[in-house]
Every structure is written in C-alpha cells, then in structure tokens.
Amino acid sequence: MNKVYLITGTNKGERLLNILRVKELISFRIGKPVRLSHIYESDAWGYHSEYRFYNQCLVVNTKLDAMSVLYEIFRIERDMGRTESEELYSDRFIDIDILFYNADIIQTDNLTIPHPLLHKRRFVLEPLNELAPAHIHPLLHKSVRDLLKECPDKLFVEKLEMS
User: Fold this and answer.
1) d(Cα 19, Cα 22) in Å, to the nearest integer?
2) Among 115, 117, 145, 161, which has the highest number of CB atoms less than 10 A from its own CB?
C-alpha cells in the first residue's frame, strides 16, 4: 500500500460542498483517506483574486502508482468542472495537488514529487503540518514543521472551526 499526501482547494461555487465532494471522489477513485486536516481558508497564491480558497490536506492509502494517481486527479478535476483552458493560477471549482508519494522523488515531464512549491506555500504547510509535522521532505531533508517555520509566505491562512 502506498501513502499519498494530497491538498485540495476551491474558491468557486459552493466551497464547502466542493471540498466534501472531492473527498468522496478521492476515496472512490484513489483510495481511502486515513487522515484529514481541518479545512483552512486562505488568500489566493500567485495571483490576485477577490475570492478566498478553502483547502484541506488528506493522507490517502492507495494501491495506485503515482502516475495513476495523477491520472485519477485529472479525471476528478474535470468531473468537478475544471477546464483545460484554465490558467496556471486562477479561480477554480477544484484543484488537487500531490504533495508527497511515500518518500519517493519523481521527476517526469508530467509529474514532480515532492511538489516543487510546497515549502513556499503556507496554505499547504499549515494543514500538512496538522497531519504530518515530522514527515521529512526527501529533497530538502527538513520536517514539515521546520518548513512551516521557515516559510516566507505571509498570506492569510486560517483554520476553520466547524462543528
């Protein structure tokens, strides 16, 4: 069984429903989430938007290899309304990124693991730290906890307290 660390995000439509729906689709198509962070609200990263994101990290046990996980992510995003024409950074119904896949280092034309920007994004590190503070980044050789402490990103990120 493989362990994949994912982050989901949405700032279009019914954000909470999008986060709940993507979790269901991930469970059905990739594998059962074994750990879930709280949902966090954050400012858009890399571009200006008037809409804030909801983000959540998931740790998922999967039988799929990394490329198959990526393929299923593309299917889920498409099924939830993401279009091919979207710019790299834009408002979206759903976005799913692979942060870690086991402790593997993967570099292909279509997939880079660990995610190359995770250490620069507080909206990723805050929920990831909630789930796996001691997890070591296989390239940077630092824990998620330490990456969060050193993160230069000062954009708004706040854990939502939902009952």
Assistant:
1) 5
2) 115
